Amino acid sequence: MSSFTATDFCVDLFLLLRQHGLALGLKDLFAVLSIVEQKWPWPTDEHEEYRLRIRLVWCHALAEEQLFDDLWAPTFADALQEEVGAREAPPPLPPAPPRPETHDTLEQQQDEREQSNLPPSDPSAAAAQWSPLPFYVPLSLVPVDEQFELGSYWPIARRQMVYAWRYLRRPVADGPCDRFDLDATLAATIRYGLYRGPLYRRRERNHAQLILLLDQNGSMMPFHRFTRDLATTAQYESSIEHVEVYYFHNAPSAYLYSDPHLTNPVALQSILATCTPNTSLLIVSDGGAARGYRRPERIRATRTLLRTLERHTLLHAWLNPMPRERWADSSAQVIAALLQGRMFQMDEDGFSQAIDVIRM
After folding, report:
1. Residue 308 — φ and ψ, nearest 5°?
2. 39-48, 86-95, 177-186, 286-295: segment of lowest average pLDDT
3. Pick the CATH number of 158-170+207-358 from 3.40.50, 1.10.1240, 3.30.1050, 1.10.287
4. Domain map (residue ranges) of the chain
5. What is the Cα Rg of the chain in Å?
6. Bias regions of kind Pro residues — which residues (predicted)?
7. Three-state SS annotation for the chain
8. Gap between the Cα atoms of 105 and 326, Å rounded
9. Which of 12, 58, 153, 323 is most buried, judging by how many CB atoms fall within 10 Å of its CB?
10. CA geometry: angle at 251 spanning 250 and 252, to 5°?
11. From the centroid of its chain, how far is CA 124?
């Protein structure tokens, strides 16, 4: 009875494909052994089906499939020839008892091999045949609770900033008189009883003025991206006529800065000298809520600033990038009370409410 099985054929084909460069591992070999039957040789009607199954498991590209088809036929023919030879061969002799190999015996074997002019074995083929096979760890996904939420905080998107600035308008009809006024034309036609020609009105222009005071560095560093987007969208992506941006650290003092690096000081009085009652002013700062401190000196400096602002304009509001629940027991809680409801959380709703306050 033959000792050659389908497992032997799959292993031979597996090693041959690895020698030709296919990245196959033990996982791939076991996957094929689980779908083939051990009876050998396979019936004629099942031979082609097994070839397609094995190729589907081991090959993942057209080049690999071509190599597989080229090696399948000779390997399968050799396996059948070995099966026939195993059937016709005489029963093997019992193995001879092992004898210990000494140094002299090894030298004698080496001399006999040299005298018989045996061709040397190919080291690359032997290394490819007996090299350790890669081991693939099966992929096991960790179950994730559907109620799980990442602890990230995203104050407001740039697109929402651009959209919200559109509502900061102070329209004044002082542009060119080139807008067709349908209502006035109809009223004049009714009044005179005949059509006397179209009537026009002046074009409205947005005369809104905005001053941004942005807290910089320190606890506001994680929010620099949002404050930068807030300034650039107001300056370059809105219809606001005049926008000024100034920076401070922690609390505004007698001097602000015209650059985010806090190197060009500008006197606060010179900034407020250009303000009118229609100037909108927006302050962006965490007010101490990021670190949860309550600093009396910060509260006093902010209170002094608010009193100074009220003498020039009442259209001012405060945006806090920290969530509202983080304001408790910090300087931001006291500053929010001083503002009398004019401090808002820097999110979509809070930004819209701040725009409503500073455009009144």
Report:
1. -70, -40
2. 86-95
3. 3.40.50
4. 1-88, 158-170+207-358, 173-204
5. 43
6. 89-99
7. CCCCCHHHHHHHHHHHHHHCCCCCCHHHHHHHHCCCCCCCCCCHHHHHHHHHHHHHHHCCCHHHHHHHHHHHHHHHHHHHHHHHHHHHCCCCCCCCCCCCCCHHHHHHHHHHHHHCCCCCCCHHHHHHHHCCCCCCCCCCCCCCCCCCCCCCCCCCCHHHHHHHHCCCCCEEECCCCCEECHHHHHHHHHHHCCCCCCCEECCEEECCEEEEEEECCHHHHHHHHHHHHHHHHHHHCCCCCEEEEEEECCCCCCEEECCCCCCCEEEHHHHHCCCCCCEEEEEECCCCCCCCCCCHHHHHHHHHHHHHHHCCCCCEEEEECCCHHHCCCCHHHHHHHHHCCCEEECCHHHHHHHHHHHCC
8. 85
9. 58
10. 130
11. 45
What are the residues facing 205 on neighbouring strands? 172
Q: Cα angle at 329 between 343 and 245, to 5 degrees?
A: 35
| Amino acid in the structure at residue 25 | G
Token pair, residue 306, equals 């608010």
Are 358 and 282 within 8 A, CB to CB?
Answer: yes
